[in-house]
Amino acid sequence: MFAEQMNQFQSRLNDTLGAAQKRAHELEAEARKIVETLGDRAQAELKVLVAQAQGLSKEQIAQLGGELVKLGTRLQDLAKSWKAANGKASSGDSAPGATRKKHRPSPSN
Q1: Of 1, 17, 28, 101, which residue is least crowded by CB atoms under 10 Å?
Q2: Could you give the C-alpha distances from 75 to 61, 81, 86, 101, 107, in angstroms and in order?
């Protein structure tokens, strides 16, 4: 009788262990699917972020280029005005201080 109870106990224990292992494998498979899905989502989001960073860089470079063009135009205008001021001073007025440049405020953006 005691041996029979031990056999029943072992049988139930083995059944329970088998069911637990089966459920553990199912949970592991679910976890793997979830991790894979999250990995795919993270990878897709990373691609989006990289694309946005590249887009921002292109926009910033374009903006910088525009500002450089404005600066170049201002420098050309200043050079023309200085040449004109120096040309008038050397050709017309030879009095001392005639070549002095007037203080001009810097152009604002």
Answers
A1: 1
A2: 21, 10, 16, 16, 11
